[in-house]
Amino acid sequence: MPELPEVETVVRHLKPDLIGQKIISFQSNWSKVLDNINIDQFLETISDQKILDVTRRAKFIVLNLEKGFIPIHLRMTGRLFPNDRIPDEKHISAVFQLSDIFLIFKDTRKFGRIYWYDEWSDFDIKHGIEPLGELFTQEWLLMSIHSKKRQMKALLLDQHFIAGLGNIYVDEALWSARIHPLSISNEVSSVKIKRLHRSIRAILESAIVYNGTTFINFSFKDGIPGSYRNQLQIFDREGLLCKRCNTTIKKIRAAGRGTYYCTRCQKR
DNA sequence: CCGTTTGTTCTGCC
DNA sequence: GGGCAGAACAAACG
């Protein structure tokens, strides 16, 4: 279940292998893998184009071509990796044949999608602020959270609000800032929101250093795992003790997701 | 067959 | 009609 740090990790590892490669062809083994373009148009548009860069926006891996962009969303179980041949495995949703290498999109659950955009802005405006970008300031977060009246967990998971946080890092950030996941955004104190701003940045930056949190079955290149899992303070620790106050960690449902929090540190 | 997992889209309420 | 919560959905697996 890749979130921002995992996607960033994939992007950084793909970059050196993909930059400068030309797209020779594309094949899909799963008709729904292309989300907003049909295969014929896609083939015609991308063939012979060079990959100029590989970047990240929200939780999308973006192939920047000479003309246009291919955002790829891994969703739950998607994996994107370069290989010298097409693997003889199940669940290969799509394959890009490049000049020197194949780019494989393997996706067991088939929720992952490939998109096409001519214009960067058409894609960009669909997503919220980048939490590691310079527009994401303490003032912005304070104002934006106080101007809404929503459960904190649901708000932070909303990709139109902040792009890139998912279930793991939201729980970690809320624990770090000592905010109850069900507290209502306009009632959370300014002190806590300022703390949240610092927490979000610090947690994401640290998770990127550790190559993300491999959880269940996400991994990049050759299954090398991210190791932030060992740094988790609250997520997936139901029944264990809070590292700050030794209270037993509880699991509840918030915004329809399994949510871990400390009943003592994170008061409503 | 059911529960579980995710982000997005929908539906319906206020 | 905006803001919001919650259901539905996309598939596969055990």
Topology:
Blueprint: H1 4-18, E1 23-28, H2 39-46, E2 51-57, E3 60-65, E4 69-73, E5 78-83, E6 92-98, E7 102-107, E8 113-114, H3 120-124, H4 138-146, H5 152-157, H6 167-177, H7 190-209, E9 249-254, E10 257-262
Antiparallel strand pairs: 1-6, 2-3, 3-4, 4-8, 5-7, 6-7, 9-10
Helix pairs in contact: 1-7, 4-7, 6-7
This protein binds a DNA duplex (14 and 14 nucleotides) through residues 1, 32, 59, 73, 75-77, 91, 107-111, 113, 148-151, 154, 157, 159, 166-167, 216, 255-258.
CATH class of the largest domain: Mainly Alpha
Q: How large a portion of the residues is in β-strands, by DSSP E?
A: 15-25%
The major β-sheet equals:
4 strands, antiparallel
How is the CATH topology of the largest domain named?
A: Helicase, Ruva Protein, domain 3
Could you tell me how far the N terminus lies from the C terminus, measured between alpha carbons in angstroms? 28 Å
